[in-house]
Each structure stands twice: as C-alpha cells, then as structure tokens.
C-alpha cells in the first residue's frame, strides 16, 4: 500500500547511520505496532513515519534548515501530486515530531510518531545510534555521557501513549545500565566478583 512512498523516501535518505533509511523503517514498524494498539489512523501515521526524516540530508548540508519543517513540505508536495487523503494531518505529524522543537502534539497520530521516533533513541539501538553520532561529530566520552544523561535518559518522560510508555520503561533500563557501566569503566574502578 505504501510501497511508492517507501521507494521515494529510500532514494533520498543519507547514509548517516544514526538517521538513515533503516531508522525510518524502524520508526514505521514502531508506528504500526503502537498505532494498532492505540487505534490510530494508519493512513495518516504510516506516511508520516516514512516522510518524517526525508530532509535530514538537506539539514546536514545546511544546518539552518529545520528537517521537520522541510520534510513536511516535501511530503505535502508529494501527496498533493498524488491526490492523497489526510494531507494536512500527515504534514502536521511530521512538522511536530522533532524533539528539539519541543512541541506537544494534539493529534493521536502525531503523538505516536513522536513516541516511535523517540523510542528509536532508547534501548540497544539507541546506544548504537548515539555512539555512531558521537563518532561522526567527534564527541569525547564525557560529551557522549552528557548526551545520554541530558537527553536520551529523559526521553521516557516525554512519551504520550500508554504503549510507548511501557516500551520506554523497558528500553531505558538498557541505556541506564550501559551508561552506569561506561562511567565505571572509563572513570572509576569497576568491582568484579572474581572467583
């Protein structure tokens, strides 16, 4: 049903491993999972999930571009050319998905897109993405730990849906354990029970 959108987005995504097409696919799958349980309109939610980061490569080239707003513009143009339904609702969800913009969405589909995007920054995949991002932007270990503590570990408090809150609670434990162990090994002396 959404194969044309998937193909369109895939061709425009960057190879940045923290925001690549694999990230988009994970967000789409999470939106399907949460959306089904929360009784969302998947005809709004899934296209929004596919398009949510399509302008990331443009923002990387020109940091003055807000990828959320530009992604919404690209989605609107694409959907208008195909006479798609729910264009305004899809565009709205994309526009408000970004964590940095600090927008609390009002529609269920926009809430789920935010939740799914944030969940992809938690758990084992979240750790992987932070470490990749740290390598790209040459963050040292202290800066990486600060990013975990100041942003990633706080994401669980920003979930909107009950389904996402449950998933976040499980995934945040993985990140907490990793950060605790990383700090011990990097700056302290870990205690081992060696027999």
* Helix percentage range: 55-70%
Largest sheet: none
* Overall mean confidence score, pLDDT: 90
Terminal-residue CA separation: 58 Å
Structural class: mainly alpha
* Series of H and E elements: HHHHHHHHHH
Q: Got a strand count? A: 0
Annotation field: number of helices: 10
Shape: globular
**Spans of 5+ residues with little confidence (pLDDT < 50)?**
none
Percent strand? under 5%
Q: Supply Rg.
A: 18 Å
Short summary:
The chain has helices at 3-10, 21-38, 42-51, 56-61, 67-81, 87-95, 108-119, 123-136, 141-150, 162-187.
Overview of this structure, please?
This protein is an all-alpha fold and about 200 residues long. The longest helix has 26 residues, at about 160-185. The relative contact order is 0.11. The N and C termini lie far apart (about 60 Å). Helix 2 (about 20-40) runs antiparallel to helix 3 (about 40-50). The chain has ten helices and no strands. The chain has helices at about 5-10, 20-40, 40-50, 55-60, 65-80, 85-95, 110-120, 125-135, 140-150, 160-185.
């Amino acid at each position: 049903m959404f194969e044309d959108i998937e193909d369109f987005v895939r061709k425009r995504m960057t190879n940045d491993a923290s925001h690549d097409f694999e990230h988009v696919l994970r967000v789409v799958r999470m939106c399907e999972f949460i959306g089904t349980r929360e009784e969302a309109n998947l005809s709004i939610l899934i296209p929004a999930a596919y398009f949510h980061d399509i302008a990331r490569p443009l923002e990387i080239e020109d940091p003055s571009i807000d990828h959320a707003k530009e992604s919404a513009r690209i989605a609107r143009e694409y959907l208008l050319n195909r006479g798609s339904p729910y264009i305004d609702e899809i565009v709205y969800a994309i526009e408000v998905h970004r964590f940095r913009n600090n927008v609390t969405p009002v529609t269920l589909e926009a809430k789920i897109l935010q939740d799914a995007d944030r969940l992809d920054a938690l758990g084992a995949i979240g750790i992987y993405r932070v470490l990749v991002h740290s390598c790209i932007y040459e963050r040292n270990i202290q800066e990486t730990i600060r990013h975990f503590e100041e942003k990633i570990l706080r994401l669980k408090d920003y979930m909107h849906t009950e389904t996402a809150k449950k998933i976040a609670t499980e995934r945040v434990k993985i990140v907490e354990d990793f950060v605790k162990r990383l700090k011990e090994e990097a700056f302290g002396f870990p205690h081992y029970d060696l027999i």
